[in-house]
Amino acid sequence: MDNEHIDEMETEEESFAALFERSQKDAGRLAPGDKVEATVLKIAKDWVFLDTGRKGEGVLDIKELTDADGNVTVKVGDKVSAWFISSRNNEMRFTTKIGGKGGGAAGNAQLEEAYASGIPVEGVVEKEVKGGFEVKVAGSRAFCPFSQMALRRIESSEAFIGKHMSFRITEYAENGRNIVLSHRALLEEQLKQEKEALKETLKVGDRVRGTVTSLRDFGAFVSIGAVEGLLPISEVAWSRVKDLSEVLSVGQEVELVVKAIDWEKGKFSFSLKDTLADPWEEAAAAFPEGSYVNGTVARLTPFGAFVTLASGVDGLIHISKLGAGKRIQHPREVLAEGQEVEVKVEGVDREQRRISLSLASVSRAEQEQAETMESFRKTAAEAPKGMGTLGDLLKAKLGKE
Fold first, then answer.
1. What tens digit of pLDDT does each residue of 371-385 get?
2. Cβ neighbour number for residue 378 with a 10 Å cutoff
3. What's the burial of 25, exposed, middle or buried (CB within 10 Å: 0-12/13-18/19+)?
4. Per CATH, the architecture of 28-95 is what?
């Protein structure tokens, strides 16, 4: 058999495989509990007909999409999320929830079916009990532990009392006399779906909005919905931040720039300062070389003192320029943190974000001394011979003073 015929057979096999896969997909064999996104095709008296993208019609009890006043809450063309229950005569039955006021054997049958297929149930949180909450669902009493009510630790249980919520049945025993629920399971499922969707769109450099969830010494944790990441303290502002609680609070909404993404490890890093104007863009113009400005001593190090000239812009006075000609062991011998000082800008390196400074008082004294020496040099050069040396002139000048 030649290569051409072999290629044709392989192509036919691939086409058949593709067609078979498509036919299986179109057949839409759903298992009880499978979730689908469907489109409303028709609204009848008792049923809502759905297009699920599969062979056969889907039907949903209209009561599930009716509000307290009896008004239908959807229209033709709307999208709805529903769970598959069963199939009969090429008709697929769906539900958006199981619950309500029903009770007795019918209610227990509904709950048992929901447990077996993983379909969510609707319930009302009635009261707090030991270890969790008592929830009424489909006429039966069920229990939801504290740990299964939310994604994070519950601060106030009172906020849940009387609330209508969706749950997943995690345990069904003794013919419905022992039912354990979890709201957290549904939240985690939703979070997983949102995270998968976010994987397709989130990238480094994106601007996102988030909510501060907690504060630590090293930074703040911020939730941007499906994921939570770290806002390091160094990325909060261009200026040095010592206490995060002075600039951020739990629950605060902030705009951030995504700095790093690691989906495998589940680690994300954000920056707040990247959304703010960079003060160094104007530093060269605001603090030209040779100018005198006022600043505050921000911190002292063995090699010098950092002085804040503006928010986010610090300059350094090297230790060699602090002693006024005398050798000192540490800047604290001359300055203290928080002290207001006048400094002279000796140099600006915009690319390296560095400004060299000196104390204004020392610089002026050095300048005056240099001017005095220059004046005497000129006097000595212009004086007639026999008037003595420069040292003699200095002594004479000092003697007059």
1. 555 555 666 556 565
2. 10
3. exposed
4. Beta Barrel (2.40)
CATH fold match for the domains 202-275 and 279-364: yes
**Domain segments of the chain: what residues?**
28-95, 104-188, 202-275, 279-364
- Answer whether 54's CB lies under 8 Å from 26's CB: yes
Sign of CA dihedral 42, 43, 44, 46: positive
How far is 379 from 396, CA to CA, in rounded Å? 12
pLDDT tens track for 139-148:
889 999 999 9
What mean pLDDT comes out for the span 170-188?
A: 90
Regarding the domain delimited by 202-275, which CATH topology (the fold level of the hierarchy) does it fall under? OB fold (Dihydrolipoamide Acetyltransferase, E2P) (2.40.50)
Q: Which of the following CATH numbers is that of domain 104-188: 2.40.50.140, 2.160.10.10, 3.40.630.10, 3.50.50.60?
A: 2.40.50.140
Fold type of domain 279-364: OB fold (Dihydrolipoamide Acetyltransferase, E2P) (2.40.50)
The overall pTM is greater than 0.85: no
